[in-house]
Amino acid sequence: MTAPGAGRTTDLPTRADVESAAARLGEKVRHTPTLTLHGDELGVPGRVVLKLELLQHTGSFKARGALNSVMVLDEGTRSVTAASGGNHGAAVAWAARRDGLRADVFVPGTATPEKLQRIRDYGATLHLVEGHVGEALEACREFSESHGVPLVHPYDTVETVCGAGTVGLEIAEQVPAAELVLLGCGGGGLYAGVTAALDGTVPVQPVEPELCPHLHAAVEAGEPVGHGAAGAAADSLGPPRIGRLGYETAARHGTTSVLVDEESLLAARRFLWERVRVLAEPGASAALAALMSGRVAVHPGSTVVVVVSGGNNPALP
């Protein structure tokens, strides 16, 4: 059996690759809505459009990449495995159940109870691993190799990236006036996919918490490097390192991440709930935090799209 991504070159995915993923996924994933805010609501000029990916199947954008990866597996594949801080695990469990496959999901003990329950609810076999996401991914790799089961990577295969990139195709259709897209960056799959989908027509700015600066550290080092993760967003934006595809996308475009502090991140999350009634998880609030804290400037009359990527950690601080 061939795991997703096996045999591919190091070439970055293209818009055509993302369009192929979109054709494959069709109506199997939700075309999530947008919500427009006047800049005055946020204390910024211009217009801010929220892309509400927390309304996607399984509560995050991860459903797109997981299902695209499962749909290209070799015929006759009966099971898959994945490692996750929670969102990707639920997405793989959902995608596997949809296609009648068994799913073994490895999750660190630091994952939130809500995300663990969601994985169980989709019928996966849950394996709790002591430590953080890196340890869960290593345990998952060992399981994949010893059992001959394809590993659906959370952010660093072409299939996962292109599935995530279908968010970008929808943004292009829904917000043709967009001049900038902001999104949270963990492993870099969403960033790489949306960048490929928009193909230079709209700049894409990744945002990271100061306590999870994986892309930022990689750009400084000139290559992906291991980095710790802490804070409220660590369960969704705290991989062991940025993915190769995310890093190479940033290197090609001369981009690094904007960093936001914990206070700004949680303030953006509170704003989304208290003013918009959008209950995003902390990591999904990072992009909006970059606007509200002034780390990213909004020019008068411009339109900025903010991807609200997930909502699977419901308890507000």
From TrEMBL:
Tryptophan synthase beta chain-like PALP domain: residues covered: 29-310
Coiled-coil regions, chain positions: none
Annotated PROSITE patterns: DEHYDRATASE_SER_THR (PS00165)
One Pfam match: PALP
Record keywords, A-Z: Lyase, Pyridoxal phosphate
Transmembrane regions listed in the UniProt entry: none
Cofactor requirement: pyridoxal 5'-phosphate
SUPFAM superfamilies reported in the protein's UniProt record: Tryptophan synthase beta subunit-like PLP-dependent enzymes
Record's protein name: Serine/threonine dehydratase
